[in-house]
Fold these 2 entries.
Entry 1:
Amino acid sequence: MKGKNDRRAYLYVLPAVILVALFYYYPFLKSFVSSFFLQNQRGELTSFVFLDNYKATLTNEYFIASVKNTLTMMLFFVPANTILTLAAASFVRREKRVNEIIGSLYIIPMAFSMSLLALIFKQIFSPTNSIINRIFHLDIVWLNDRTSALFAIIALCVFLDFALDYILLLSAFRKIERNIIEASLIDGANEVQRYFLIELPQILPTLIMTIFLAVKDILLISAPIMLMTEGGPYRSTESVMFYYYIEAFKGSNRAAESTISSIMVLFSALLLALYSIIQRRRRHA
Amino acid sequence: MRKVVLIMLLLVIPTLLFSAGAKEEDVTTVTIWHSNSGILEDAFMSLVEQFNESHDNIRINAVYQGKANDVLTSVNAASLAGSGLPDIAQLDATAGLDMMYAPYLVTVEELGVDTSELIESAYAAYDSKRGHIGVPFNASSLLFYYNADLFEEAGVEVPKTLDDFISSAPIIHEKTGVYAFSGVPTTYELITFLGSQNGGTYLTDNRNGHDGVSTKVLFDENGTFRNFLEKWKALYDTGALNNLTSGVSNAFYAEQCASMLASSSNLTTVLENTDGLFNVGVAYVPMVDSDATGGVNIGGGCLAAFSNTEEVREVLEFMISASSQAYWAESTGYMPVNRNTVESPEWQAFIKENPLYSVALEQALSSSEKVLGLWIPSAYQVYYSFQSTIASVLEGEMSIDEAVSSMADMINTNLMEYARQNG
């Protein structure tokens, strides 16, 4: 009986496995294999070159710059995103009517498409007549400056990710069992103690998840850059995936295409492994 | 269940009817992927309409694919996928290299298009070792746009050379309080600034890549890039130059700068946006020095064919015909590519009324054939790297020598990498 059920279970997951194999594993294996070969413009493998393609990609100064940009964005985006969403979710975590109103304001960004928001942000940070400058009486050329353009993109990312992360964290807060909180009240815990010692540890798995989601979002960022800066000014806001996009799609550079996609898949896999290890450790601790 | 079947039937029947209707008329559809937006799209779509109305058996299906470079991206993607290529694509110089080697491209010669009325230099822009990769359709050249009111207020002449501009720019800046010029030159501008020197020079060997893939850059050895950078740095050092890489036209409309370099195809758009605000003038691009007499290249775009059919040939001949080109040029600012358009009394009357529309064509016709669009791999990256390198020189982060060798190295590396991958 058990064997029969098992077989049926495999049957149920089969369609998903086929799709994943066809659209994720097969393309990855194909590009991984072709990263060791030369390809002509029709995508046919011509000769085996072992690591030459990797050498060409990894020594390209613009690829190195794109890695640096991606890391810089990660360095600023992940903490900013975590602190802001956690603060917002903490602020409205109690079920009160006023909190419902504030809470629905927080999820408004979700109602707009990414491309629309990117174009709005492009106007907000326009170098010639920036709205931000007018409101705050600043004189920054935003998207025309190497440093500030990167931060304008980070601002957009914070806005884009805010609603989803906020909802995840809020539902984690709301799912905390009442009896734990009531027990802490009886024990005489004050607001601060209750938040840091009782509630925060309870939502930690979700918090770790949002942090990893944020890391992943920056690791794979390209569309907001495409829309907002096109990698400019002066190629200063190219992320790894944007660099991949221009090499693979604009430049028909097959070597860069297969090597960068292989590197990125391996990197994402490592990240996923790290995530699983952390979550498992935490559960067993 | 019965309801579902009924709904399905209702959905299927009309499609059957329609497809049957299309077959009866025996219409051939010619799909064009184009890059015209705004005013250009309106003009292009009305050309398409004119064609469709006058041809019973051919129907143009025009699909907007984004900027010229985006059209190339879509074409490359479709060719890699092995299906879905259009019959015709509107491409620019960044597609030159890909098209020269594209197995699916049908050259103008293979298609047998009648090109006898085309202006020679406009047609020569798409000449490759394989034949012409397309017919010129939206031909343009670089133009110097200036705010005539601000120039008058400052009491300065339109610069003929960069030396003129170096002396007049600070006067404009001082007297009017706005930047004399906005923008950072890149590939398009540099083909003129470098290519026009010494009466006309190539930027890379093999005739800027038209006679086969270039093997190396020439602008480092022949000193043209250094010569340009010295002048441009001197211009920047006057404090009257604003390094703006995007929104240059907006800065020009908002009178934040007195001049800019832009394609002649923007002329109608610029005039509409400044109508009632100030007077716009256009002039030849300033020369780097008095020996830089090569002029400008004919840029813009061509129509490349991917299907070898009579219908495609007919569409291309319509697009380059004297009347289509007259309509197209008058509504956009692109230069007519048909000799008969230029000689027609209608065009002569039009430019008499709108003298600004004749400057680009005159400039292009007096240019050297050596000033030619650059067909190199990774054109998109090179475009942004030029800007990046020039900005670094201006901001003092890089010396002129470093900039010349860094840019030459970057393009040479791309050329070597292309040769390594494609043999």
Entry 2:
Amino acid sequence: MDINYTPEERAFRDEVRGFLKDKLPADISRKVKEHKRLGKEDTVRWQKILNEQGWLALHWPKEHGGTGWSPIQKHIFEEECAEAGAPTVLPFGVNMVAPVIIKFGTQEQKDYYLPRILRSDDWWCQGYSEPGAGSDLAGLKTRAVREGDHYIVNGQKTWTTLGQHANMIFCLVRTDPDAKKQEGISFLLIDMEKSEGITVRPLITLDGEHEVNEVFFDNVKVPVENLVGEENKGWTCAKYLLTFERTGIAGVGSSKAALAHLKQVAREQTVNGKPLIEEPHFRARLADVEMELMSLEMTNLRTVAAAEAGGVPGAESSFLKIMGTELRQEITDLFRRAAGPHALPFLPEELAGDFEGPYVGPEFAASVASRYFNFRKLSIFGGSNEIQKNIISKMILGL
Amino acid sequence: MDFKLSDEQRMLEETVGRLVRDTYTFDARNKILESEQGFSTDMWNQFAELGLLGVPFSEEAGGFNGGGPELMVVAEGFGRGLVVEPYLATVVLSGTLIDKLGNDAQKEQWVSAIIGGETRFALAAYEPRGRYDHTVVETSAKKDGDGYVINGEKAVVLHGDSADQLVVIARTGGDSDARDGLSAFIVDANADGVSRKGYATIDGLHAAEITLSNVKVGADALLGEEGKAIDALEASLDLALITLCAEAAGAMEVACDQTLDYIKERQQFGVPIGKFQALQHRMVEMRMELEKVRSITMLAACSLDAPADLRKKRISAAKAQVGKSGRKVAEEAIQLFGGMGMMEETAVSHYAKRIVMIDHWFGDREYHLGILETLIDVDDHAA
């Protein structure tokens, strides 16, 4: 038993660090670290830099232009990226639809879409949830009816993250309304730019931000060659996508970076003339978070090591999702407290990447309350934490 | 990075596992608890025969040369069976302290006697006023000719009631809570001036309040240099904390397993109660807390060679997590068992008691979070 990285793993980490030091644009990492709004162009610029290095497609096999990395290498890479303040890669293309295309797609689909994803030619979004199908995803109603060489799609998707920038959407649609719930679903790729009948409407979240959308389909014609896998077998693709190996699901790197920033802030803020970090109640909560983070990190590493040894992290990643999101939310709560009364001013303009001040309160305080509310989403999306518990109950506990 | 056990560690795990499974049944343990001594000498002799009493000692001394992971493996196995024999007191606390501080003659005499199972020890360190702080020592050892005279009181000395010998921490210099000036002495538990009030603890162990009045010991009773025992004492306490965390992990695992079995079996409203989502989610949370404890215990057990601050940070974090997660698992186990969880005849109630009370040995959650608070700036890169 040895919890330390091997010399090879350490060398790899140094290589990643060197790359991030040289290639991560300072203006982008500043926005990430200061919790400013990131634009589409920031994400695309970073993805192109990663692709040039061959490090964009973390989870793809080498033959398709992926890294072919081991679970430990992916873990190290994600940790280092979080610490350096690299933006999150848009997951919908490279980490979600691409693995499905690689596993279930035709040769034509692979040849067409995969290089476009690597080059960031397309901005993908996800058409899964519907107003009536959230945790009960298989209850989706968006209909696709085959007419000659096309499907005609009608219905509505919602919670479409960053769909306002997207030109492509992958959708779960119902192709057989008479089959059992999971059996009449198909997986369709839909061009949002070229198709007629698609309307994207913004949904403004409680922090005042435009991050998610609803997407309406009104007699949208989709060529049959955009079907991935077999008709009515889309649920297989959906499940594959949802359980696709996600080494980063625990968000350890992001929580570590946030905790380090929180400590920094707590050293600078004062309470009764003393640094906040010395205030007993705050410090006790900080210590508790530190402890939980150490436990989470080791649990994550155990799962990564098991994957490295050939085990498939299945339902275990549900533990990581719950633990990781609860901890991340706790940190946003502490940030809010660290700001004190200056958590109150609600000035969305202070979160713009080019805002130069002056700030109403301390600079860090500008985003804390918004982020606290925004991060309530962590325990809701990607399968709510209650759904994760159902998965563990069934798959691990046999209940 | 590698979380697999080595072949030797796996052998150790199997040895302890077999012993606990085959001989340390719930009924057998209940009989041991009823005995006046509170543990089984037969069992102790088996530990000796299997080499378990030598785990942390060097091969030259006849030991297994084990470190943190080896102690962890043994203690997890003990935790699964709620083993009550004085392993922690004799081997981990006293034995490793003698091994670190003692001269060749002392080691030859006492470490061999420990490994062979002939002598049982207790560490008399904590005092009534000090709670969990081992540096608060008012017990004094004053020079008396070639030897020393020891006076003072020791509180809740683990297995102090049955020990043949004591390692007494006494002050030979410094203020009552100074780190300097602490010395360790070997004292015959039946020596003149030693009075012991023994009792059972609520988690199935035994302990004693010990008063030392004018206890005379020779110069050969002193372990190591006078006034310089603190580092070795803390090293032994660190091993004890790792052992306790691992024991908690083993006990929590069984509490989770027994609870899961129970909710699959117990029928209400015509179905097993495990079909109810409210209970399923509680069961999942128990397992999640167990995983945290397993993980952070591994981290602590693998950190003995880390720089002192980082080692302390990780070990205190582990003990604090055991306090927090252990309480959750124990309380939920009783809750999910319902009325049966309240019964002495139900094994899970014994697990719950041990898991909760582990928090009271060698520093509870608040105490160790307090230590962690002082180390909050120590950089912790797991690997």
